Each structure stands twice: as C-alpha cells, then as structure tokens.
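Hi V.,

You were right to ask for the full record rather than a summary. Here it is.
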Amino acid sequence: MLQPAYQADVVVVGAGVAGLSAAHRLISAGVTTAVLEAAPCVGGRMSTEKVDGFRLDRIGQLLSTAYPELALAPALAALALRSFAPGVLVHSDGRHHRAGAQPGAGGARGALHAVRALASAPRPSGLPRPGPASAPRARPGAPLGTAVDQARLAGALTRLATTPVERLLRRPELPAGRALAARGLPAGTIDGFLRPLLAALLCDPELSTSSRCADLALRAFAAGRLCVPEGGADVLPELLARSLPPGTVHTGVRVTSVATDTVTTAEHGEFRCRAVLVATDGVTAAELLPGLRVPDFHPVTVVHHTTDEPPATGGSLLLDADRGGPVAHTAVVSEVDPSRAPAGRALVSSTVLGPPPADVDTAVRIHLARLYGVPTARWETLAVHHTPRAVPAMRPPHDLRRPVRLLAGLYVCGDHRDTSTVQGALHSAHRAARAILADLGAAGSLHRADPVRTTARAA
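Predicted structure:
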C-alpha cells in the first residue's frame, strides 16, 4: 500500500490541555490533526490519582471562574466547576480572618456550571459535623491592617477586576513584591494577605514573579471565584480529548525529533504532515526545538490526608500569613467537591512550595494542627506528590505573548509561552491554532487516514 503524501495536515506533539485545545480548534476549522502523546494517558501535569474512592490531584492547580478561555472552549461546555467560599481564610496569630471577598464576584461564565461551595449546603451522608470548639474562628479584617488599609485594598482589587488586560500589560514591570510596595500598599497588607494569596495563585511565595503576571492573577481573583474541576483536575483534559474525533489522540508514542513537515517517533517511524505543533512542557519542547528558552520552575508538593472528623472551614481556601511551616495553602477539598472523597470521609489537600522538608508528611501534619486548630496525628496519609517542574517561573522581564510561530510549519504552545496557568496554556493554544490556520490558508482536510495505522501498514 502506498503511503500518502501527508498523513495529517498537522501533528500535535503532546496531549496536555494546550495540545488538546489546539487540536480541537484545528479540527473544527477542517484541518486534519493527529495528537501524539508519550505518556499512557492524556492530561500532562493536570493528572489525578484514584485511591480507594478518593481523587487526588498531583499539582492541585487552582482555577478561576473569571478565566475567559474556559468559556471560549466549546469542548469544555460540560465542565463543572466547584467554587470555594468567597475570598479566602488567612491564618495569622492563631486566628482565621476572612479576606478578599468581593461583592458581586463572578460565578460561572458562558456555559460553565460553577457550583456553590458547601458552606451552606447539607453535609454528605455519613460525615459528622466538623470541628471541635478549639478550632480557630474566622474574623473579618486583620491581618489586613486598619480600616483605611482595608478600604485601600478593596479599592485596588475592584479596580483590577475592571481594568482591561491590555492596560495591565502596559504597566511598568517589576518583581511583584517590589511593585506592590511601590504602589503604597502597607507592608502588613502585602505580607498578611497579598503574599500568601499570590503564593497560592502563582506558586511563588517570594513574589519574584513579573508584576504584570501578578496583576493578571489578582484580576482573576477579584473578578471571579477560585474553583476546582468537579471530579479532579484530569476531568478538564479528558473532556477536551473526548471532544476530538475517534483516533485523533495516540498515547504511548514517543516523538524523538520534529521538522516543518515531519515528526519522527520511536515506535512508528516518520509521520508526514504540513505543520507541526509542539505542545509539551518547556523542557521537552527545548529538547525537540534546540535554541528554545528553558524556563526555571517552581517545585510543588501536594500532601493528601483523610479523616472522619474534618475541621470546619466552610469550603474555604486557608492560607498561612505567618509562614509558620511548610504549608502554603490547604483546604478540606471534599467540602468544595464531594465527589473527591467517599461517603463518610473528608479529603484534606495541602500544598508545599519550594523544596520540601526531609520528613514532609510529619512537618505538614504539625503545621496543619496549628492552621486548623485540631489534632492531626490520626489523619491518614493518602499520597505525597512531589513535582520538581510543576510551574514555569515568570520572573521579569517576562513576555506574556512569547512567539508561538517559530517558522512556517513549526509552532509551539504551552504555559511556558504565556502565563503559567491553565488560562495561559489554553490561550497559547488559541494563538498557535490561529497562526497555523493563517499559514495553511485554513485549508480543509487533505487526508483522513489514521497516521499510526497507516505507518504500521506501510512498514
């Protein structure tokens, strides 16, 4: 059997959210596309481990209902988002303080289904009422400073929520910590609220991130609600994959080299195509595309515990302003999304930023006991997930629109080309698909053969 001139119009290397989203846009425009993924499943870093009825995210990315790309992707119309309680809880001096709740902050956008957190909902069957009397109580105000300081912060968040993105991107660029101080915000407000909040949003507790990226993160926080996908992080890439025609995604296929019209794999030889889109992580992309800049990364460790006596947080994200231990933020995730734990059990997920301590589980338990104000010695450890290259760093100067078109026929996308968020990964895919369609003239299908099967027959 003669091998066709092209086995697909476009070959996408990598089946993370960026590659899958780009493939969906290309196929919707009539461009035949094959997605090759080295791993046995799709999703990349957005993966979820299933253990005894629990759903445990490996990195635990926080989403926002204000992410525009979530609503712009038709394949994500069925995505259900479970929202945390408005604002966040901040632990400081042994107390919990409610902070950052914006009046009228957004619910779901477009066709997304944002579901209220369980602060006012009935508790799942079989789960006892949480929290002993010794648990810290939430108080408004501190550690945000005086009433004047709080009013200034509220005004700043309100302005961010309504400022056009392009205007934010024209602001002078500094490390986020320096930029916040230069705007006249009190040191107590920065260290007591903005630093732990941005650490949760950007995985950068030192605030070395570009101030423009920090402004975008704060804008999404102020305009929407923090949330997680119902059922686990891997639901998002799985929805994208299921929206593609059968036979589009091929897992377990390792790409060894790329060119403008060829992809070489370890298992199936060469694939002929009209264009190649590399949609892998930053390190793998640089291996396939020599000369591509490799970013630094923020390591992330997520520790999952279960208990039948969960602390009371009302479905809130809990931050540590005192930096009194390894945990940057934590939540009783099963209060926000009951599908992540079996009936009668609670799931507590905690995030450690930077290099973890030697005995991370013990250190996290001790810290959680202080944060929640409850004993944690009997909590069961479900998993400890350490990801050294979890989140690309965005130190200034950072180009939020790094080129996705390297040359005609060769393209790249991913969170390392935009912002280090799910929004950034999806937006870079949008830009890459648009560039490919412009270069191909939005040509329709040339050949609809399954490239893996065609190559196997030709061999």
